[in-house]
Amino acid sequence: MAITVSVTGCATIDKKVAESDSWVSCVGGGLLGAVAGAAIGATQGGSDKVLLGTIAGAAVGCGGGLLYKNRVDRLQKIAKEEGLKMQVRELQLATAQDQQKQREESAAVGLEASVEYAQMFPVGSANLTTEGYRKMTRVAQEFASKREDQSKLPENQRRKVLVVGHTDSAGAAQFNQRLSEERARAMGQILAAAGVPRSDIYYQGAGSSRPIANNDSEDGRAQNRRVELVEVQNEALLVKRVSEERASPKYLAHGTGTASKAARATTTSSVTKKVAKAETAPAKSASVAESTTTAAALIKDKQANQPHLDNALPASESVAIKLAGKGTIDFGGHLVTDSSSPLTGSIAPKTPTFSIISPAYASAPISSCIGDLPRVEGQVKNLENDQPLVEHSTEEYFPGLNGKPWVAAVNGHVASVGPVAVLRDEAKVVKQPAMQFIPDYKKSKKQTAKIESVANTYEGETQILYRVFAVNQATSPVSCMDVVFDKRSGSAVAGEIYYPKQSDAYVAQYLPKRR
Q1: Which residues have CB under 8 Å from 477's CB, separation 6+?
Q2: Is there a smaller number of Cβ atoms within 10 Å at the N or the C end of the chain?
Q3: 33 pLDDT above the threshold of 90
Q4: Please, are residues 160 and 238 in contact by the beta-carbon 8 Å criterion?
Q5: Mean pLDDT computed over 185-195
């Protein structure tokens, strides 16, 4: 059964539900919740999972609409009183047969509150300020309320709260991920202190991997520096939420690399100066200074290999994107002046179970790999024992993407990438690839050394974007690759190679075949 979760603008709820008495809402919601639970159980596989999903789902609708309507209202009130930049969205579950009926028959299964960090954390630190702690305690107390009936339920049927930390893209991805995880855990501790059982709290550091705004302005960076508190009715819904956030093309609308228009810079040193003013700037305290010293080393290594844009001309004029390295192989492509990509933009979004992004945002243009960097996010962990969330993943590969290299001739040169190994579950990369080349293969069969690479994947409805980055772009003939695979046939349907030529970025078409 196809099901979807939609977001109501500013967390409104259907008028009929709001005006009906609580008994009617409980019965109606409970029936729809049982159907939803069965559908979620079916996605986990096995009749026992369906039964478990049905039982767990029956608890979804019973009073859920009224609970979340009131909670949303109270959170919005807290945000206004405390001056918090917080967006609260109600998660709803409905059969996806008719969008109009979806609005009329939907049942609330949770909510999401996204709060900008603002002044709540010192730069580079996971220690809340005194004022930030006080404000977030008020928010946590709301999540801890109305939990009297939860202790009587089996653990997997109790309401779960997931805290996800996010940063802007300044600095090294690994540092950002660790910092965001520490901040998410700190928020989880506040929830626990307010009365939410630690076993019902999960946390994750997503770093800069899920931007919701460009990083070219302080306002955009501030939007990306945020924490999300997501409450859902049971563990099955939590698993679905977590899995669908991974490998989602909706977060590709904003790149994380300095070659995107979001971060123009004339030199590597100017990029470093921008970083120093952002998330990883040196701090006064000893603990922060230690963290930022480590970050600075990571940033130095990373920035040396990052592409950037020449800012000498006005933004309205075409400017060649600059890449690290002079380039050793000419693949016969054309000059790159724009980090967007018609190739990646043609990928149709996957039909979601959860959708917290508006359709307008989900269909936004997608940046090419030249405007991106490898995206790093951490595991979802339980606050009680720091163990990862169990997601029951399988080991089944997509057709053709089972660990073989993919090869194509481009302008008289051979370019290969592999092994390409992608699982069906959330399009997970299970083996990191390497790039390798044979320059002028008709005259010589000599291969270059294997070039260490990192791959990210993004899953659409029928296609998968496989994005590969050279770890050391200053010495690699190719900076990055984008290859689109048809996940039904296992064939490559489109591809691009981005490479430096006298420090300018060039792109060539690349349509490899499995070897």
Answers
A1: 327, 328, 329, 437, 439, 448, 451, 499
A2: C
A3: no
A4: yes
A5: 98
What is the three-class DSSP state of 223?
helix
Q: In sequence order, which residues have a C-beta less than 8 Å from that of residue 48 and are 6 or more positions away?
A: none
Q: Which helix (H) or strand (E) holds 183?
A: helix 173-194
List, as one string, the DSSP characters of 39-106: HHHHHH-SHHHHHHHHHHHHHHHTTHHHHHHHHHHHHHHHHHHHT--EEEEEEEEEETT-HHHHHHH-
Helices H, strands E: what count in the chain?
13, 20
Tokens encoding 125: 């630190």
The 10s digit of each residue's pLDDT in 103-143 is: 445 578 899 999 999 889 998 999 999 999 999 999 999 99
Q: Are 100 and 106 in contact (CB under 8 A)?
A: no
pLDDT (tens digit, 9 = 90+) per residue, 381-426? 999 999 999 987 778 999 999 999 999 999 999 999 999 999 998 8
Q: Rounded CA gap, 379 and 10, in Å?
A: 29
Chain-centroid distance of CA 24 in Å reads: 38
Dihedral-angle region of residue 195 (phi above 0 means left; psi in -120 to 50 means alpha; beta otherwise): left
Torsion of CA 240, 245, 246, 251, to 10 degrees: 160
In degrees and rounded to multiples of 5, residue 154 shows phi and psi of -55, 150
Residue 474: both structure tokens together: 């200053």
Closest listed residue to residue 259, CA positions, set 211, 225, 310:
310
Where do we find the tokens 């307010």? Answer: 194
Start-end of H helices in 318-434: 342-345, 359-362
> What distance in Å separates the CA atoms of residue 221 and residue 374, rounded to the nearest whole number?
18
Angle subtended by helix axes 64-82 and 22-44, to nearest 10: 100
Banded model confidence at residue 10, pLDDT cuts 50, 70, 90: very low
